[in-house]
Every structure is written in C-alpha cells, then in structure tokens.
Design a protein that fits this description.
Elements: E1 4-5, E2 11-16, H1 30-49, E3 52-58, E4 72-83, E5 86-96, E6 103-116, E7 128-129, H2 133-140, H3 142-163
Parallel strand pairs: 1-7
Antiparallel strand pairs: 2-4, 3-6, 4-5, 5-6
C-alpha cells in the first residue's frame, strides 16, 4: 500500500454561522461545532484511505474562542498519523468576523477514524508521512496520543461495564 503525504488529505470547509446554529448567547452551539469537526475529519480520512470510515474517538475539544452569529467558521483537517486500520486526524477551527476580518483559532481537536470494508470490518490504511514543520511536530507526538487514547478507551469500557444499562440513581430502598 502506497504511503501518502499528510497534505493529500487536506480538507477545508467554511460555513456561515446563522441564527439556527446559535444558543441564547448568540454563539455557535458547541455540538454544532463538534458536528462540523467530525464531518471535516471524516472527509480527510476518506481522502487518505479511499474507503468508508467511522469515528472511533474524539480527543477533548476545548472551546478557546466564541463563534458569533454572522461569523464564519473555517475548519482545516488532515491525517497526521496512521496505525494499521486507524488514522489520527488533526482539525483546526478558525472563526472570522466577516465585517472586520479578525480571525481567531476557536478550537483544535484530534479524532481517530477507522477505515471499514463493505462488511463494516476494520480495513488496512496506507501510511502517511509529514513534510512541513507543523506536520512533523504533529506526527512526532502521535504515538503518545495513540497510547493515551488506548488507555482512555480501556477506562471507558470499564466504566461502561461497571454502570451497565441500569439507572444507578434508582436504588432499592
């Protein structure tokens, strides 16, 4: 399988923030931003592997700057690292006030996407290599993030098993 440069998966998406996208403070719903992040990450991952993908995890999303009604939100995403059937995708979201031209990074995120075949089983992905200094920095730290995600997933499974499907707040009295 051919190894590809990070830039081949670059995906850029801009959206105008309209009233239905905002909360009572006139800022973009966090969940709406997360949907944009997931969408652009999936496109980048498919561009890299040319297969269907599913989201395996999203690292923490910190809302660094508000995105106001009337602003645009621009998301950039690309594959930074691969491992067998999974890909790490970096997403940067920038808000822009269209009237003043002021731009601010409002969030960054890492997502793990898994390629799947026609039976929805994990499928191998091509390797990826960095070229720019920023890509190299992201790629060099990816293994550490991968190990962190693996441990976090294990803890999440333990938590799900402990609490199960019953309602813990309904106790037998």
């Amino acid at each position: 399988m051919e190894t590809k440069p990070c830039i081949d998966s670059l995906t850029v998406k801009s959206s105008h923030v309209l009233p239905p996208d905002t909360n009572s403070h006139g800022t973009l719903f966090g969940g709406k931003l997360m949907a944009h992040i997931d969408d652009v990450a999936a496109i980048a991952a498919v561009r890299h592997c040319r297969k269907a993908v599913v989201t395996a995890s999203t690292d923490s999303v910190d809302f660094l700057q508000p995105v106001f009604e009337g602003d645009t939100i621009c998301l950039e995403a690309f594959v930074t690292w691969t491992h067998n059937t999974s890909m790490e995708v970096f997403v940067k979201a920038t808000t822009e006030n269209l009237l003043t031209g002021e731009r601010k990074v409002c969030t960054t995120a890492f997502l793990s996407m898994v390629a799947v075949d026609e039976n929805n089983e994990p499928s191998p992905v091509p390797g990826v290599y960095p070229e720019s200094e920023e890509e190299k920095w992201l790629h060099d730290h990816a293994q550490r993030r991968h190990e962190y995600r693996k441990n976090r997933r294990k803890e999440s499974k333990e938590l799900a098993e402990k609490f199960g499907t019953s309602f813990p707040w309904k106790r037998n009295r």
